[in-house]
Write a structure and sequence with these properties.
The complex is a heterodimer of chains A (about 400) and B (about 180). Chain A is α+β, with helices and mostly antiparallel strands and about 400 residues long. Chain A is built from 16 helices and eight strands. Chain A has a single domain, classed as Cytochrome-c3 Hydrogenase, chain B, CATH 1.10.645.10. In chain A, a hairpin with a 7-residue loop joins strand 7 and strand 8. With about 180 residues, chain B is an alpha/beta fold. Chain B has a single domain, classed as 2-Layer Sandwich (Beta Polymerase, domain 2). Helix content of chain B is about 20%, strand content about 25%. The longest helix of chain B is centred in the middle third of the chain and has 12 residues. The chains are: A alpha+beta (about 400), B alpha/beta (about 180). The interface between A and B is large, with 49 and 42 residues.
């Protein structure tokens, strides 16, 4: 590591965090140069979880890439599936002969699973952030509720982490018997549980004062550095792709968008770590509301139990052997913000190029900027407040 | 907040750089073809013109055009800039064709800091050199890796520091299988 010439090299300490550090949210190495207690320079080192997923995308057929999208972000695999499938459907729609219409019931189920997964993903985010600043218990409360979501998903598709559930043209299985009642019951008890969580963490003075005014990112900086999702909204930018560039049936739902308002009070500033944390909590509430709304919209299952979703999967797989030539860029709102696919097709059954832009990548890109000048002990709190998930950075 | 159409944005860009070409992908997706030397100027104009105000770089990536069914075939690396304006809520796509042998494009990191990471990734995986980039080095692959994996003519190495990538009897094809028999 080179040291800036202005300070004599011997007076700075170089601290190596990771690659295997319990507070780095995956295999991430951060080299921190500190001047006493203060961070003088922070150099993230990426690539430990690089699995060449974009290269794999050029080697497997269109539907075979869906399981790989699970691995791009396994904390919200439903949203990751959905992003790719929506992008491919948009590409197919450029030619009327290949256009795929997703059955309405499948559209509703997609929103339902995406929002449930957003809840469980944000629970990990806020729980892990509390853990990063030294409170271990809230993480377990978050995990316990996430288990309930995982149980629902396990009944739905047999998987608890990497679901491979959303498919191009619909979803893999219809809701299991009793799913609607199960989800409604979960949402009810979950709301009560969140009140307890808020008493424990959100309104906790120690936690709030620790995060207040920490790593402040103003709106212009957030936009220029490419922050997306809750990190962007935490800085006060009123933008959500579900509302502003809607896909699926989000356009029919009333998506309310929370944003950072210096929630920490006296010492807080708009766009600080506490704002990013509170925006995630408010988004959890919003997702609960969206889940309830979409349960109301859910049309009855098709009569034939064998093909509950309109039975067009065979037709879709035939279409996917000859995808129209061209390029498409579609972005969707994943829990960590914009998940944007840039897909190029040469007219074959294998994508020519699959590019996935993720929220954690640009958030990690901003570390070197926001870490400068903060206390060494706050480094993990800042990582937690940006909610970076390392497989999403490295892909 | 006034969203402009692709044509209006193209006209505004052409007043700064007349060589910018207006093109469409096979499926009708419009994009602007910018000469490599002009990309930094065009970027600055797109960001600073009050009617355009492209304040965000949604994504910066690349596509290797080798093996792409162009007529006539071309073997450039296409660097793709996907821009968005939070102020006006409009979008534009820029494409810069860089020759694969001497692949150099001016960096836009001074215009949008988000490009610092995006350009490092394109440098790492496609071997495009971004001139003027503050810290151009590999980001995902190890620093001593040979070659740029997302190029279509990339050869899979047999080993890395003596650790073989293949079990006995296996072999890599030199490039990933293309859509043989697309019917």
């Amino acid at each position: 590591m080179t040291v800036e010439a202005s300070t004599p090299a011997g007076e700075r300490m170089t601290l190596n965090m990771g690659p295997h550090h319990p507070a780095t949210h995956g295999v991430l190495r951060i080299v921190v140069e500190s001047d006493g207690e203060v961070v003088a320079r922070c150099t993230p080192d990426h690539g430990y979880l690089h699995r060449s997923i974009e290269k794999i995308g050029e080697c497997v057929e269109w539907p075979m890439f869906v399981p790989y999208t699970d691995r791009i972000d396994y904390v919200c695999a439903m949203n990751a599936n959905l992003a790719y499938c929506v992008a491919v459907e948009r590409l197919l729609a450029s030619d009327p002969a290949t256009t795929v219409v997703v059955p309405r019931r499948a559209e509703c189920i997609r929103v339902l699973v995406a929002e449930l997964n957003r809840i469980s993903s944000h629970l990990i985010a806020v729980g892990a952030m509390a853990m990063d600043v030294g409170a271990y218990t809230p993480f377990l409360h978050g995990i316990a509720q996430r288990e309930a979501v995982n149980d629902i998903f396990e009944k739905l598709c047999g998987q608890r982490l990497t679901y491979n559930y959303v498919t191009i043209g619909g979803v893999a299985f219809d809701l299991h018997d009793g799913a609607v009642a199960e989800i409604a019951a979960f949402l009810d008890q979950f709301e009560r549980e969140m009140q307890r969580f808020n008493r424990l963490v959100t309104t906790n003075t120690i936690f709030r004062d620790r995060c207040a005014g920490l790593a402040v990112v103003d709106a212009a900086q957030a936009i220029a550095w490419g922050l997306v999702g809750p990190n962007l909204r935490g800085s006060g930018v009123d933008f959500d792709l579900r509302r502003d560039e809607s896909y699926g049936i989000y356009g029919e739902l009333d998506v309310r968008v929370p944003k950072g308002e210096a929630f920490a009070g006296r010492h807080g500033r708009q766009g600080d770590a506490y704002d990013r944390y509170v925006v995630r909590l408010l988004e959890i509430q919003e997702s609960v509301r969206l889940c309830r709304a979409v349960l109301q919209l859910l049309p009855p299952a098709a009569d034939k139990p064998a093909d509950p979703l309109g039975g067009h999967q065979a037709e879709v797989s035939k279409i996917l052997r000859k995808v129209p030539k061209g390029a498409v860029h579609v972005r969707t709102e994943a829990p960590r913000g914009e998940m944007g696919y840039w897909i190029v097709s040469d007219g074959g059954k294998v994508p020519f190029r699959v590019r996935c832009r993720t929220g954690s990548f640009t958030a990690a890109g901003m570390f070197q900027h926001v870490m400068r000048g903060i206390f060494l002990a706050d480094v993990v709190a800042v990582i937690g407040s940006f909610d970076v998930v390392v497989p999403e950075i490295d892909r | 907040m006034t969203a402009l159409s692709h044509e209006q944005i193209a006209a505004a860009v052409r007043s700064v750089c007349p060589e910018v070409g207006d093109q469409r992908a096979s499926n009708g997706r419009p994009f602007l073809h910018v000469p490599a030397a002009a990309v930094a100027d065009v970027a600055r104009c797109l960001r600073d013109d009050p009617a355009l105000r492209f304040d965000a770089l949604m994504d910066l990536t690349a596509v290797d055009l080798l093996q792409f069914p162009y007529t006539p075939p071309r073997d450039d690396i296409a660097v793709v800039y996907l821009l968005f304006s939070y102020a006006h809520r409009h979008k534009i796509t820029l494409e810069v064709f860089a020759p694969r042998q001497a692949c150099a494009v001016p960096s836009v990191a001074a215009v949008w800091p988000a490009a610092i990471y995006f350009e490092r990734e394109v440098f790492d995986l496609f071997g495009v050199t971004f001139t003027g980039h503050p810290q151009l080095r590999r980001i995902l692959m190890p620093d001593d890796w040979q070659g740029h994996p997302l190029r279509k003519d990339y050869l899979y190495p047999a080993d890395y520091h003596g650790v073989p990538h293949l079990r006995d009897g296996q072999s890599f094809s030199t490039s990933p299988p293309r859509a043989e028999g697309t019917s």
